[in-house]
Fold this sequence. Notes:
Blueprint: E1 2-10, H1 14-28, E2 33-36, H2 51-54, E3 64-65, E4 72-73, H3 95-101, H4 108-121, E5 124-125, H5 134-146, E6 151-152, E7 155-156, H6 182-189, E8 192-194, E9 197-203, E10 206-211, E11 226-237, H7 240-251, E12 269-275, E13 290-292, H8 296-299, E14 301-305, H9 310-316, H10 321-328, E15 334-341, E16 350-354, E17 357-361, H11 366-385, E18 390-392, E19 401-402, H12 403-406, E20 427-428, E21 451-452, E22 455-460, H13 475-491, H14 493-496
Parallel strand pairs: 1-2, 1-11, 2-8, 4-20, 11-22
Antiparallel strand pairs: 3-4, 5-7, 6-13, 9-10, 10-11, 12-15, 12-18, 13-14, 14-15, 16-17, 18-19, 21-22
Amino acid sequence: MKLEVDVAIVGSGAGGGAVLDRLLPLIGQGLKVAVLEAGPYFTRDYFTQREVEMMGIFWGNGAWPTADGAITMMMGKAVGGSTAMYTGVTFRAPDEVLLEWGIPGLTPEDLKPRYEALEQALNVHAPPADFVNDNNRLFKEACEKLGWPCEDLRLNLRDCDQNGYCNLGCVSGGKQGTLELQIPRAIAAGVTLVPNCTVERVQDRTLFAQVQPAPAGTQPGPYPPGPLEIKARLIVLAAGCPGTPALLLRSGLPGLCDALGRYVTVHPAVTGFGIYPHPIKNYRGFPKTYYTPHFSKSHGYYIETCFYYPFSTAKSVHGWGPEHRSLMRRYNRMLSILVLLHDPALPANRVTLSRGQAKLIYRIHPDNIKALAHAQASSAEIFFAAGCDSVHVSLADQFELSRAEAAADPGRFIRPENFIPGTTPVSSAHPQGGCRMGIAPKTSITDPLGRVHGYPWLRVADSSLFPKSSHVNPYLTIMALADRVADGIFADRREFLP
């Protein structure tokens, strides 16, 4: 099968959705646009809120590991990309991060109006008071007791019913991701959406793809299973990291520098648990409403509230056997918080290929392991200040730290030497880099407007553009950068578009 369009967008997540939204006026004037998505087209009716059934909305059924097995990558494989199953946390990149990036046109002053416009369009706001369940309330009270700042997590929600199953797909449609906003508008305007479409390579304004059968219960696409060739005047890669770097590596386009696939950051995440004296409201209500940036600049991490479902919680608990079972039996008494580490962009951390498929080679930096130990000691302080009887963190000398022995100085029991790759539970939902933007073709893959060096008909508009970590949840910055990529498309419109 063959398809010919003016613009082809690979990926329907935050970046692809932002570019798509900007193209809507031209689509209304006859511009032909296709969106190619590797994942299925899930609708609200599909989201059963049952963990085992919903793992199909993630790459690798929720178990896509780094090459050494040390980190589980949680990435959406669906129309809407990861915006279909994220929590809706909407940060601006810190000013110091943008200044460190040093990309022309991406200073804090440059991005401020884009952030403001996107926040308004996405209905971003602080959580209302009734969103705060016990897990979040106790976190805030503990931070206040410790004298640490506790700030609202800004969320992109509208008419949220607070069922708490955000990461398994939003049944209410309250989460304002691409699945709910940009995709319906685009389809109504006449965009061709091709779900279950794996793009294998790009060559000379042509994408070579394979359409897979639609899973039962999902919306079918316009093309039957089999090969699909898409010709386009302009191609936008928005498959994220590792998707976009892997596609370019498979394609073997001449002239791209050795930075392709490299300088990947993943924002390593580790969960800690406290056990409260009696049952609390933890898994119902909105899962994330607060965070503390207290140690961001001094030690390189944020601490956010979070709460996950039984299976996800069980795999985040370090250990096995009777101890693990004992902790899980106290699920309804658990407090849970998430540590997010600011990892460095290193050339050795990279996307490569294994039998043509993306493979992520990533090793956690020793400084991040030290930061994790400090963060888990800070987490323990929060749990004890909240009134917990005991604490479970993965770098402790023992499975569970009691209030009597550890509350005065939990850091005595928590050591970086206890970190064991592949055994210490670490996850990531924020992969970034691999197609870093910059000025020089010798050190970057795209220019500051996402144009791939040497291939003006090819653009990148996703998290793989990030030259270094965003330090925070990257969703809003992905959209802001993609919005700027759209500026470049409009600037070059006469050259590529009818």
